[in-house]
Fold this protein.
Amino acid sequence: MFRRPPICSNIGGMAERLRHDEDGLLFEAGDPISLAETLHRCVTEEGLQARLAANSPGVPPVSDVVRSHCEVYGIGGTAPASATKGRNRKLVAAVGA
């Protein structure tokens, strides 16, 4: 989407998706020195941002995100009533859940 490589701490969901030094950079959670070093590297290392951005899988379509969430939470072919209210109704309809 923005073609900028993510920089995130080494814990949590983003850390699970990101491949360090392939499509983004990780820093040690709770360590401001690690964050500073990572940011410094990002702005000083020639070609790093372009290389990481080129390897980025990009932003998945909303329908893929909804489908994977339905799989994780075992929603399968039917969505709970709360998922069919408001704007969520369009998302659920997009994946046929």
Summary: Residues 7-55 form one domain. The helical segments are 13-17, 32-44, 48-55, 62-72, 88-95. The chain has two domains: 7-55, 62-95. The first helix runs from residue 13 to 17.
